[in-house]
UniProtKB/TrEMBL annotation:
Keywords: DNA-binding, Transcription, Transcription regulation. The lineage of its organism: Bacteria, Bacillati, Actinomycetota, Actinomycetes, Kitasatosporales. PROSITE patterns: HTH_ARAC_FAMILY_2. Signal peptide: none annotated. Residues 130-218 form the HTH araC/xylS-type domain. SMART domains: HTH_ARAC. This is AraC family transcriptional regulator. InterPro entries: AraC_XylS_family_regulators, DUF6597, HTH_AraC.
Length: 229
């Protein structure tokens, strides 16, 4: 069973996921990075460009999902180095520091809240996320074109691409595709017909939506949502 709540860290989400069957559901690209806890392990989920299916037997997870583009400043690692990867936090930070964090989580009554506290502590002295990149996410999430958004932000194409690699793990066009996918999924889950979902999310038509869902999520939209529409 999956549950989430808004974090006290601006834009972040605290979540838990406990096994509710034998099959693991795919984790879809969303523009975000997560700090994860499972079975005594601290990991970082890098930015995905395709669906990620957890390996091994079902297990309980806790995590904090950072607003797109903000995790690299907290972790001290460019996002593109973690693209499509799950990495032990001890591979990024000193093992002694990670050991203390692990002990802190194990002693806490709630692992997800402990992760949130760690992220809040880290944010108190980490570099402030670039507000320009937050505006980029907002514009692309509204379905605005990349070129027009770059002009509004007064960034050249190369500069924008370079900054996106460090913050999101990929270029602005990939970020726009992923945010559009998330818009479409939200609309489809609300019960909107797929053809109308495609138009409102910014796709040319329903076949375009279907191709993008297969490419980014690895399965048809109906199967992804657990229905037959």
């Amino acid at each position: 069973m999956y549950a989430e709540r808004a974090s006290r860290l601006t834009g972040a989400v605290v979540w838990t996921n406990t096994p509710a069957g034998t099959g693991a559901r795919p984790v879809l690209p969303d523009g975000c990075m997560d700090l994860l806890w499972t079975e005594g392990r601290l990991l970082v989920a890098g930015p995905d460009t395709r669906a990620h299916v957890p390996d091994g037997p079902p297990r309980a997870w806790a995590g904090i999902r950072f607003f797109p583009g903000t995790a690299p400043a907290l972790l001290g690692v460019p996002a593109h180095e973690l693209r499509d990867r799950r990495v032990e936090l001890a591979d990024l930070w000193p093992a002694s520091r990670v050991g203390r964090l692990r002990d802190r989580i194990e002693a806490a009554p709630d692992a997800a809240t402990a992760l949130e506290e760690i992220a809040l502590d880290r944010s108190a002295w980490a570099a402030v996320p670039d507000p320009l990149l937050r505006r980029l996410v907002e514009c692309l999430d509204e379905g605005r074109p990349v070129a027009g958004t770059a002009d509004e932000l007064e960034l050249g194409a190369r500069q924008l691409h370079r900054r996106c690699l460090g913050a999101f793990g990929y270029g602005p066009k990939t970020l726009a595709r992923i945010l559009r996918l998330q818009r479409a999924l939200a609309l489809a889950r609300s019960g909107l017909p797929y053809a109308e979902t495609a138009v409102r999310a910014g796709y040319a038509d329903q076949p375009h939506l279907a191709r993008e869902v297969r490419d980014l999520a690895g399965r048809p939209l109906g199967r992804l949502l657990g229905g037959g529409r």
